[in-house]
Amino acid sequence: MRTAAYARYSSDQQRAASLEDQLRNCRAYCERQGWPEPTIYTDAAISGARLDRPGYRALLAKAERYDVILVDDLSRLSRDSVEAQRQVKRLTFAGVRLIGVSDGVDTARKGHTAEVGLRGIMGELYLDDLREKTHRGLTGRALAGASAGGLPYGYTVTSVGQRAIDEAQANVVRRIFAEFIDGLSPRAIAAGLNRDGIPSSRGSSWAMTAIHGDLRRGIGILANPIYVGRQVWNRSRWIKHPDTGRRVRQERPCEEWVTTEHPELAIIDLATWCAAQARMGVRGKDSGKPGPGRPPRHLLSGLLRCGECGGPMVVVDKYNYACSIARDRGTCASKVRLRRVVAEERLLAGIREEILTEEAFQRFEQVTAIALKSAGPNLDAAKRRVAEAERIRENVMRAIKAGVLTPSTKSELIASERAVQDAEIALRHARQLQPEQILPRARETWHRLTTSLADSARDVPAARAAVRELLGAHARVINKNGDLFAEIAVPSDASNVVAGAGFEPATFGL
């Protein structure tokens, strides 16, 4: 019997001992059942509504290795009713039993589907109630003039919810406003601060976006009214997207905003604030540049990486790709400029000529088939193992029926049952990893990527996704004796890509 246990607690305000409390219950349950010590997976201070928990993802990736997975209660697995039901179905299909030690959930019991659904809904209702109570409490703090959010640059905490001006950082804020009003761009201001060795609020270098910010959202040095003594809270809320599970920011109507005046927190005067806002309005109206959070409009933005600092290369003047770190922070000395049209044409041509040809795909098929056959499980051996395990079990059963009972009979029967289960699981895995099942899917992927790249001019997002799938996270721009190349680190996961097994890392001339 192979067992695993998962434990989680939600907030850094809770006790880390909560994990041990949950695991103690799971271990005690295993001990009562005569099962071995479970393999442990945990997540600390992460909400159960999130799907990107490291311990949770690791458990799901290895779930089929276990016969039983234990949680203290179902809400530890997920606070999302749809996610909980989806994973329970997945585990049940794989033959994995899920047990909630404290709440009594057991997927081996008839009718567990209704119980899982009910407990999932209860978990969501708990989160909704907690969210409303938290928001109500923060609203009261904001109306009372206390801080109800993060600490902006320029201030220090004096007590719970109370702030005071940090004079050293306040001087930096005044410098930013003065230089902006005098005509410097946020990019030039950030470069100057970095050149003078002044750390940002996070102790790192300054970025242009931290200075310019967003007027609509009231974030960024130049857009935050706290610097003139006005606190605006409840501008937005974060909700989970129903399809991706990611938290998405939604703006609230202005009538729901909570605004309070704090003249003691003013770092600049009203005239300075108004002058900066006037210039911000002109820039925002006439710049024609995409605002923060919008997807890249160009094929290789962010996919190309600077050869000096590793930062993303983006379109800087409509015609050229360049290092965004050098442009926005001034901490990279790279002067490389890539003509956008030329770089895109040459990289796509290189992909088509070296990766998406029929010859390349046939080579991929051959190499992948060999790799899967040599590294993958032997289907015939797995079948023989099942037959042998069943034969031994039958021998034990015949001995018991014949009255051959010894002190070791029970342990031999348990061992033979376990051997049969292990052999059947190994056989199921062997059938799932056969080359004849994987390679047709690779052919479908190859056709899809080819189609997406062929239509790159009209559907940039699809083409970007295809390039990323083929080349991995990024392509590093390197300089070889004055010539520029995109150096590709081919993804190592051959099951996800056409250019995986059988292809060496490539360089494409730019």
TrEMBL record:
Residues 2-145 form the Resolvase/invertase-type recombinase catalytic domain. It comes from Lysobacter panacisoli. Residues 152-286 form the Recombinase domain. PANTHER family: DNA RECOMBINASE-RELATED (PTHR30461:SF23), DNA-INVERTASE FROM LAMBDOID PROPHAGE (PTHR30461). This is Recombinase family protein. It comes from the Bacteria. PROSITE patterns: RECOMBINASE_DNA_BIND, RECOMBINASES_3.
